[in-house]
Amino acid sequence: MANPSLSSLVPQFWGNNAAIYTWTALPASLAGPSVSGPGWTDRSVQVTGTFGVGATVTLQGSNDGTNWFTLHDPFANLLSFTAAGFAEVTEIALFMRPNVAGGDGTTSINVVLVCCNHQNN
């Protein structure tokens, strides 16, 4: 199986305040490569694409790069998607990644993570 694509290992920057990470065409039962950015204070995630039968996408965080946990939105809901969606991310983790569980041969998920800080320029 081909490795999923992370469009920008070096994030796309918008001024000095935001970075955009994009994973494209994530297949069934595979985690995307992780990104690191603990200095980003505000984060949102957008999930789109084709959800094959039984596909669930979670946004996961880890502080050691080995043990991964599903992150939450500001209302303590797990960031778990069975269809296209958009949410804020509460936790600040050293590493973040999308993870596709289940799905089938039609699964092709796109995830966009926007990270922003509010430091003075």
Give the low-pLDDT segments: none
SS class: mainly beta
| Largest sheet report | 6 strands, antiparallel
Q: Could you estimate the helical fraction of the residues in percent?
A: under 10%
Strand percentage lies at over 45%
Radius of gyration: 14 Å
Strand and helix order: EEEEEEEEEEEE
Number of strands: 12
Oligomer: single chain
Number of helices: 0
The shape is globular
Mean of residue pLDDT?
Answer: 87
Summarize the structure in short.
It contains no helices and twelve strands.
Write the layout of secondary structure elements.
Blueprint: E1 5-6, E2 12-14, E3 18-26, E4 30-31, E5 35-36, E6 42-50, E7 56-62, E8 69-70, E9 80-81, E10 85-89, E11 95-101, E12 108-116
Antiparallel strand pairs: 1-3, 2-3, 3-12, 4-11, 5-11, 6-10, 6-12, 7-8, 7-9, 7-11
